[in-house]
Amino acid sequence: MGPRSVTDVDSRNELVRLARSLHQRGFTRGTSGNLSVRVAGGMLVTPTNVSLGELRTDDLAMVSDAGEHLSGGRPSKEAFLHLAMYRARPQDHAAAHVHSTYATALSCLDDVDDDDVLPPLTAYFVMRVGRLVRLPYFAPGDHGLGETAERAAVSSRALLLANHGPIVSAPSLAQAVDAVEEVEETARLFFLLQGHAIRPLQPAQIAHLCAGRA
Ligand code: ZN
Q1: Residue 3: inside a domain
Q2: What value does the mean pLDDT take over residues 157-178?
Q3: 99 C-alpha to center of ligand 1: Å?
Q4: Quick check: 162 pLDDT over 60?
Q5: 39 CA from centroid of ligand 1 (Å)
Q6: Which residue from 60, 67, 162, 175 could staple onto 170, CB 3.0 to 4.6 Å apart?
Q7: What residues make up the domain containing 198?
Q8: What is the pLDDT of residue 213?
Q9: Catalytic annotation, residues
């Protein structure tokens, strides 16, 4: 590969900064969680078996659109999931996946609407996430998850993998990280509110938010 472009260096620095920030604030534990950014020739993705809190720019893996490891550290075993999001959503250029506690707890519930898992509790959830769709359970390493995620991501950028955790894609890495945090915080609110009568945002209020975003 030739010298790294300015964009590539910026992407690497931002990936490392936001990965550390997610880890320091408890959104990832151990070596779980992975982030990616689309760059010329494929994507930069966080490596396997490295804590997001300890990441260095040279650890990042470069992976082609076909899933081939081109350079850097060994890519996350969940890199295929990021590629599936990008195939479905050409408008998005970054993705964030975590095993955060409340969102993962939500992913294990029996009696929720898989097509719309969380109610519209706050304006920020509506604006940053929209609709959270739950996918069926797949064992780690089962690439069948890639096809299922790709189909679902066409109509929703926020997916909740059953008994596992959320992945969100967005136009920028900052937006993807914001959105995955919003999923976690809204899942936390959802559990705090169990047993209470909830007043979610109403359709007219949601329409107003979506009109403001357009
Ligand atoms: Zn995972």
Answers
A1: no
A2: 98
A3: 6
A4: yes
A5: 22
A6: 175
A7: 8-213
A8: 62
A9: 78, 124
Order of strands across the sheet that contains 94-97: 69-72, 61-63, 42-45, 34-39, 94-97, 165-170, 158-161, 132-135
**Centroid of ligand 1 to alpha carbon of 104 (angstroms):** 10
Name the band, by pLDDT with cuts 50, 70 and 90, for residue 106. Answer: very high
- Do the domain assignments include residue 1? no
How many domains does the chain contain in total? 1
Radius of gyration of the chain (CA): 17
Does residue 94 belong to any structural domain of this protein? yes
Q: Compute, in angstroms, the gap from residue 155 CA to the centroid of ligand 1.
A: 21
Predicted model pTM: 0.94
**pLDDT confidence of residue 107:** 98
1 has pLDDT over 50: no
Cα 109 to ligand 1 centroid, rounded to whole Å: 17
The whole-number pLDDT of residue 3 equals 56
Instruction: Kindly state whether residue 195 falls inside one of the protein's structural domains.
Output: yes
CATH number at residue 23: 3.40.225.10
Q: Where are the beta strands (DSSP E) in 66-163?
A: 69-72, 94-97, 132-135, 158-161
